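Re: the 78-residue chain
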Amino acid sequence: MDFRKAISSNISALRKEQGLTLVQMGEILGIKNQSVHTLENGKTVPSFDTLMALACHFDCSVDFLVGRTDNRNSHKLE
C-alpha cells in the first residue's frame, strides 16, 4: 500500500471539500502553506502532530487519512 499517495490525496480532497485554501489549511495546522503544498504533492509526510491535527480538524480517523480504511468514520464508536 502506498501510504504517501493515500495521505497526499486524502489531505487534498478533504481540504478542497471544505473550500479551504493552502494558506487557510496552514493556519489551521500551524504550518506554512508551502508545507501543506508539499504534503498534498506527496513530497513529505505529516508529522505525528500534524497528522493528529488533520484527523481532529476533518473529524476522521488517522487510518482514513493514511488509506488503511475507506470509512471516514471508523474512529467513532457506535
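The chain has one domain: 3-65.
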